[in-house]
Amino acid sequence: MAPVLSIIVPVYNTELYISRCIESIIDQVFTDFELLLINDGSPDNSGAICDDYALRDKRIHVYHQKNQGVSVARNYGLDKATGEFVIFIDSDDWIDPVFLENYLIELKEYPTQLIYQGLINEFKDEQTYLRLPARRYNNNEITMALFEVELRQCLGGACNKIFNRTIIEEYGIRFEPSLSYGEDKIFTLQYCQNINSITLLDNCNYHYNRTMENSLSNLHHPSEKLIQLIELEYDLFKCIEQKFNNTQFIEAVRGRYLSINKYALLSMYRPNVLKAKSVRTAQFEKINHFIKGYSFDKKFDRDVPKIVHYLIEKNSDFSLRGLMWMRFYFSSLYYMLRNKIK
């Protein structure tokens, strides 16, 4: 008999964390699940640790593949899954014993098609809670739910939600292997096009390990990949706009789209990967064309420092080159200047 839940965990080079992750899943109050561990060609001892757990618990299934990235690993897990519902967990994260039960209690009372939980950000020296407002949303209210999670910048991220596997398979939804950033948000948006109910829970029982994470400002995503993500993301948002008309949500979408466009433009000015002026000019034109005719609530357009907003509005190619040069070679001066402009 098929389990209620399929838990998919892509594994790569997490030998220091994978036992904690698996133990937290084994210790769940709700026990009717299969655990699919997809070892994505880890050169460390992660795969052997997974194999050892599979020998001890018949619910655990381990699959080994050559290194192809997290999207391919998750897709492989989806191909192998047999549960009614699907949950993704990252191999360096962990969950509290009631994490699965929270979902099942809600599903028993109200058969919603997508459920979000809050999460706990685990930094080296502190914890921060990302808590969602507890509420159920149906039909045209769905954009209100998406507005709430986008406002908190957690619409994407595969790991704090539960999906209906029938919907995933019926519409052929999979993670995009060509994306190195934002692939989980694209997956979620594709899924949201095909549902009519969302529930937000205010529980925070997922521990998101951010101790090794580079921030968005420090991690360089190639501009070509960012632009690919931008176009995919915005096309999906437009489809959702057409299905559910909600002014607040549309403004949030436009603000986020503008923000990531600006970040893509900024990435072109990094001294080590400086793009040709014609490429930078084309991206300027795209941003300015999009801005024209719209007014934005700045709380949706907050990922890029305000000095960058100002220079983009002034169409100042030379100043942006100087700013990024300063960011790389005189970082203390850059941060002093950035922090003066509020």
UniProtKB/TrEMBL annotation:
GO MF annotations in UniProt: hexosyltransferase activity
Domain Glycosyltransferase 2-like: start-end pairs: 6-171
Keyword vocabulary terms for this entry: Glycosyltransferase, Transferase
SUPFAM superfamilies in alphabetical order: Nucleotide-diphospho-sugar transferases
Key word Transferase present: yes
PANTHER family according to UniProt: GLYCOSYLTRANSFERASE, GLYCOSYLTRANSFERASE EPSH-RELATED
Name of the molecule in the record: Glycosyltransferase involved in cell wall biosynthesis
The organism of origin for this protein: Pedobacter cryoconitis
